[in-house]
Write a structure and sequence with these properties.
Keywords: Ribonucleoprotein, Ribosomal protein. This is 50S ribosomal protein L7/L12. The chain is an alpha+beta fold. It is built from four helices and four strands; from the N terminus they run βααβαββα. The protein is 57% helix and 19% strand. It is elongated and about 55 Å long. The relative contact order is 0.18.
């Protein structure tokens, strides 16, 4: 499974950062701290699941709002939040096109 990984680069407000990460991950506080110290991914999501990608985008925005800097990585290496947003937008467009095609295909059967 290919993933989008979130690595914490810099923490401005530790308490708020840990609170956000605990809210969105099943990891314990000690596991979160360990992964941050080792520069390991604190969050990894399937890069083909739109709902998971949207969740990650929300987490990144929340962390950025409190001054925490993150690194976003996929199979190609480090990507930007803008790239992640483009991936999400592409998947949303594909889903919308699929719904339109389904509607056209199944409207003929009635």
């Amino acid at each position: 499974m290919k993933t989008i990984d979130i690595i914490i680069e810099y923490i401005n407000d530790k308490t708020s950062t840990y609170k956000i990460l605990r809210e969105y991950t099943p990891l314990s506080l000690s596991e979160i701290k360990s992964r941050i110290e080792n520069h390991d991914a604190v969050i990894a999501v399937n890069d083909l699941k739109l709902d998971e990608l949207k969740k990650v985008r929300e987490i990144i925005r929340s962390l950025n709002n409190i001054g925490t800097e993150v690194v976003i990585q996929d199979v190609t290496g480090t990507i930007t939040l803008k790239t992640l947003e483009n991936i999400i937008s592409s998947y949303e467009d594909i889903a919308a096109d699929t719904e339109k095609l389904d509607a056209l295909m199944f409207s003929d059967e009635q």
